[in-house]
Amino acid sequence: MGESRSNNAGLDCFKQHGIDRPVNVEQLIKCKMQDNLEFLQWSKRYWDQYYPGGDYDANARRLGSGAPAPAAAAPRASAGAARRGTTPTIGGARAGKSAAGGAGNAALQQENNTLKETVQGLERERDFYFSKLRDIELLVQQACEEDPEIERQEDGLIKHIQSILYSTEDGFEIPAEAEVDDQETF
Fold this sequence. Notes:
Layout: H1 2-16, H2 25-29, H3 33-50, H4 58-63, H5 76-83, H6 99-146, H7 148-152, H8 157-165
Helix pairs in contact: 6-8
Protein name: Putative Microtubule integrity protein mal3
Region (Disordered): 66-105
InterPro entries: CH_dom_sf (IPR036872), EB1_C (IPR004953), EB1_C_sf (IPR036133), MAPRE (IPR027328)
């Protein structure tokens, strides 16, 4: 009985707003992509055509306070033309959050900011040490160009430096040269 009551409520809502489009719920329930896509496209077109503009406060609508009066908004023809293809957004990312959700959200944002600072510090440290290693590598290359005999010495300082510079750890793979492929893979 509750199911037929909710279906009638949906039909009453459509009638109240003057929507004559039949909605075949059985087709939508089967989750066939084409049927659902057509319904979503129709919903989007209806929204773009009749939404009066301004910020949309979903929580206030659910509580029954309603949306801004259409008379206060711009004329529908010009508003629909200007807004076509856009989706309305809430004014600010935090608008409409509950107190409990806001506290959890604030904690997550603080943790996220802490992690971002940590990553920035690690990136600075990585860049610092990479530049030092690069400078050493350039000095070794310059010394080898000036005196090729230095590189041929088996127990020489240059060989030891090069072995340290170019050594790898277990599980580390040297990235191959990036080959750009124009084809996308999914």
